[in-house]
Write a structure and sequence with these properties.
Elements: E1 5-9, E2 16-18, E3 29-33, E4 36-37, E5 41-43, E6 49-52, E7 61-66, H1 85-107, E8 111-112, E9 119-120, H2 141-270, E10 271-275, E11 293-296, E12 301-305, E13 310-312, H3 333-336, E14 343-348, E15 355-360, E16 367-372, E17 375-377, E18 382-389, E19 396-401, E20 406-407, E21 411-416, E22 419-424, E23 430-437, E24 443-445, E25 451-454, E26 458-459, E27 464-470, E28 474-478, E29 481-482, E30 487-494, E31 500-502, E32 508-512, E33 521-531, E34 536-546
Parallel strand pairs: 10-11, 17-25, 27-34
Antiparallel strand pairs: 1-7, 2-6, 3-4, 3-7, 5-6, 8-9, 11-12, 12-13, 14-15, 16-18, 18-22, 19-20, 19-23, 21-22, 23-24, 23-25, 26-29, 28-32, 30-33, 31-32, 33-34
């Protein structure tokens, strides 16, 4: 991981990006988007995050890089000067940061890996590469695609030439076979001449047969005359048969009329039509047939005859039915329909214009009313109690960063339907929303960020004596401390030398000492450092006031 830069890829919506490395001043930080330097951004108060004025485009390359001054020394030592921690830290930080940046630049290149001693591009594409000239030069995709197309064209041309040669050889073979066929045809023609000579002999025999046939034909004429007489008699017989068939058709037509009339009568006896009241006989005045139907024009209902009474079908009659073929007992609709979870069924207007109402029972969503504590230290296991309502079994708890990132507690315990206890260990300083989801899928998300994760304030001034001053002198003692937000100093116990007061914003204890002590006196006290999140740190200090000194002193 680099120590002097970080890279991100834009998604078109995210504007805030973390700056995870240390730097001397914000002017040492360069931000580029898609290779171009941009200053259209803002820093957070802790200097650990930048926020772009508008979200970088999707897939845009984002780089945040520290470039410490290499041309100018930030510290110039002078003979006899006082070396302070700040001066030494500034000089050391410049050298340290420059070393980190040099190492990062050296690591951010193609190097030889240590397994096979080959160049390793670390799964990155190489761009702006020229075409190869030597046999072992690296080749670009464009060069390989172009070379492959040329080789395919050459192979196609070679294949076409081979096909032409093969077709020519086949044509020669076909001509040779044709010559063989023509030779065989000549042989066939020779044999045909022999056959024609024999046919002439056959024709002579046929002429003789024709003469004999003429004799037979004469005798056939006599036979045909007799046959005409037979056909005439047959026509007479067929005419008589047609008369018989005509009478048969008349008989069949009368039978069809009788059959149709019977079918219509049977239909009329079953389907009686529209009537104003229950009939007691069918349309012919005969007894009702079981299964007969009619439409009651007064009640607008179809009824059927059971063999003993008329029963309505569907309308104005409660029907008992089975849910399926496997149902053992028929029942009414309001008894067969059963409300499920969070559903109730209610029958209305029983015996009148009945209705069936489906009522949904209001879902019991969980709620969040408060959490305690509301502040957790960075990367520190913290137990938090969530108070609310409708917690079922062990719910799922999500801790949602204001940027949208979701984290989860290391443990979740359901104390009761109104209380959960979770353990969190979060490494990112931010404000967090809480979301609780029951096993049935019902969930709630806090309307505001309830949890703040930040660093606790720390003193940079060591505990113990801040120094010694003379009675009656103007004294000043500096106590330093910081956090990831604004801090304030306060005295929670002990006493300052008389005349000295604490600057709550800077931690400076100053003033003109005007106490009445006659001997050197040590004043002990405890200071508290409080940050914007309400986190505190306490440290004990002391100041000695000497008697008989005409001058004053100051220690930092």
């Amino acid at each position: 991981m680099a120590n002097s830069f970080v890279r991100y890829t834009g998604n078109g919506s995210t504007t805030a990006y973390a700056v995870p490395f240390s730097y001397r001043e914000q002017s040492d930080i360069t931000v580029t988007v898609a290779g171009s330097v941009t200053t259209a951004l803002a820093w957070n108060g802790a200097g650990t995050q930048i926020t772009f004025n508008s979200a970088p485009a999707n897939s845009a390359a984002i780089e945040i890089r520290r470039t410490t001054s290499q041309g100018t020394k930030l510290v110039d030592y002078a003979s006899g000067s006082v070396l302070t921690e700040t001066v030494l830290d500034t000089d050391s930080d410049q050298a340290f940061y420059m070393a980190q940046e040099a190492i990062d630049d050296a690591d951010d290149v193609i190097k030889i890996e240590n397994v096979t001693f080959q160049w390793d591009a670390t799964s990155k594409r190489m761009i702006n590469v020229t075409d190869p000239t030597g046999a072992q030069d690296a080749a670009t995709k464009n060069y390989v695609d172009t070379a492959s197309t040329s080789q395919v064209n050459q192979a196609a041309a070679s294949a076409a030439a081979a096909l032409v040669s093969e077709n020519a050889a086949a044509a020669d073979e076909i001509l040779t076979n044709a010559d063989t066929v023509l030779t065989a045809a000549d042989v066939v023609l020779t044999h045909a001449d022999v056959v024609l000579a024999e046919a002439d002999k056959v024709q002579t025999g046929l002429d003789r047969i024709a003469t004999a046939a003429d004799v037979v034909s004469t005798n056939a004429d006599v036979v045909l005359t007799s046959a005409d007489e037979v056909l005439t008699n047959a026509d007479t017989i067929l005419t008589a048969a047609d008369v018989v068939l005509t009478h048969a058709d008349v008989v069949l037509t009368n039978a069809d009329v009788v059959s149709t009339a019977a079918a219509l009568d049977a239909f009329d006896d079953t389907y009686l039509g529209s009537k104003s009241s229950d009939p007691s006989v069918d349309n012919d005045g005969d007894a009702l047939a079981t299964g007969a139907l009619y439409f009651n024009s007064n009640t607008n209902q179809i009824k059927y005859w059971t063999g003993s009474s008329w029963t309505g079908i569907g309308v104005n009659t409660d029907i008992q039915a089975k849910v399926s073929a496997n149902d053992t007992t028929a029942g009414y609709l309001n008894g067969k329909l059963v409300g499920g979870t969070a559903i109730t069924l209610a029958e209305g207007s029983d015996g009148s214009n009945e209705t069936l109402t489906i009522n949904a029972v209001a879902a019991a969503y969980p709620t969040i009313s408060s959490i305690s504590p509301s502040i957790a230290l960075t990367s520190t296991a913290t137990t938090i109690v969530i108070t609310g309502t409708n917690y079922v079994l062990t719910p799922n708890v999500e801790i949602i960063n204001s940027s949208g990132a979701i984290s989860y507690p290391t443990t979740v315990v359901r104390n009761s339907a109104t209380q959960l206890t979770i353990t969190v260990n979060l490494s990112t300083k931010a404000s967090y929303f809480l979301r609780v989801e029951n096993p049935d899928g019902l969930a709630v998300r806090s309307s505001s960020a309830l949890l703040t994760v930040s660093d606790a304030p720390t003193f940079s001034t060591a505990s113990g004596s801040l120094g010694e001053g003379a009675k009656g002198a103007a004294l000043s003692f500096d106590v330093d401390g910081s956090s990831d937000s604004t801090v304030a100093f306060s005295k929670i116990s002990g006493a300052f030398p008389t005349g000295l007061t604490l600057n709550t914003a800077t931690g400076v204890i100053s003033g003109t000492e005007n106490g009445s002590q006659t001997t050197t006196t040590v004043f002990n006290f405890t200071l508290r450092l409080t940050d914007a999140e309400g986190q505190t740190a306490d440290r004990a200090f002391s100041i000695s006031v000497s008697v008989g000194m005409a001058n004053s002193g100051q220690w930092n």
